[in-house]
Structures are given as structure tokens and as C-alpha cells.
Amino acid sequence: MNNVFAKLASDFFSTIVFLAVYLITDNVLLATGVAIAASVAQVIYAHVKGEQLGFMTYASLALVIVLGSATLLTNDPRFVLAKPAIAHFAIGAIMLKRGWMLRYMPQIVAETIPEYVTIAGYAWAALMFALGAGTIAVAWTGDLKLWALYVSVVLISAKLAAFAIQYVAFRLLVTSRIRAARA
């Protein structure tokens, strides 16, 4: 589980840096510049350590550079604020693949309720699209405090709630199926 959180923190490193610097300094341009530098430094550090970088790392770097540069050139924070939405849309699109979630499930879940796992995979995709749309709506307002609250509280809380609901539902469904099979 720690590995999952480490990978998520790595994938969203530039967003975390942007948010932290912005909350400390209240300066969008400084936060954007530091986020761009941090993202580039992250990739260089990984190369120096000989780590393999995935597609998401390079995609995140490209988004940070392009959207961050647009923010710096136009002095409009909405460009960089849209980055998490693009990531959510991309992840949502990947989650539209039928059965993607089965490989992440314990064997008993994958074997007992595969149809529900597939439905949950589509529900996660819908959640990612909804959160991405919400991020765009909040970014469009240009209110950085509202955006900071949204990305640090709403995005995380929605995913944690969905995970908890899924866990309880899968546990109940597996238990029910096993009991029915024994009867």
C-alpha cells in the first residue's frame, strides 16, 4: 500500500509542489516556476538514479512545462490549474478498458464477483471524468483558494469515499456469494 501512495505522490509531485509554494507565498507565478523546476529536477534525479520512468511521468512533465509556461506568459493561473483535470481525464479514459481493475483485486474477489469488479472499473472512470470536470469548473473561476481546497480536499475525499464504498460492497458481495455457494 505504501508503494501505491509513493507512486501517486511521484505522479502528482509538481501539483503538490505548486500547491505548497502557492499556499506559503500566495504567488502564482513563483509557485508555477518552482513547480516546473521541481518537475524537471524529478525527471533528472530519476535518470541519475537509473530509475525507469513511466509514461505518466513524462506526460506530467510535458503538461507542467506547457501549461506552466502558458501561465507564466499570460499571467493567467487557469492554465496550470487545469493540469490535474487533464490527468483525471487521461486516467478516466484508461479506466474505460473493460476489466482493467481485475488485475488489482485479490484473487478471491476477481474469481467470485468479476462482473461487479468490471462495473466498479467503469464507475471509477466516471468518477475521474466528474472530478476532472469539477477541476476545470473550479479552475475557470480563477479563485486559487477555492482551487487549492478542491484539489487538496475534494479530489482526495471523493477517491477515499469511493474506495471505502467499493471495499465494503465487494466484501459483502464476496461473502454473500461464498455463503450461497456453500448452501
UniProtKB/TrEMBL annotation:
> Which residues span the membrane?
12-41, 53-73, 79-96, 116-141, 147-174
Record has Transmembrane as a keyword: yes
Q: Which domain of life is it from?
A: Bacteria
Is Secreted among the key words of this record?
Answer: no
Tell me which GO cellular component terms the UniProt record holds: plasma membrane
Which terms are listed as keywords in the entry? Answer: Cell membrane, Membrane, Transmembrane, Transmembrane helix
Spell out the PANTHER family in the cross-references.
INNER MEMBRANE-SPANNING PROTEIN YCIB, INTRACELLULAR SEPTATION PROTEIN A-RELATED
- In Swiss-Prot or TrEMBL terms, this protein is called Intracellular septation protein A
Q: Which organism does this record belong to? A: Bradyrhizobium canariense
Lineage, opening ranks: Bacteria, Pseudomonadati, Pseudomonadota, Alphaproteobacteria, Hyphomicrobiales
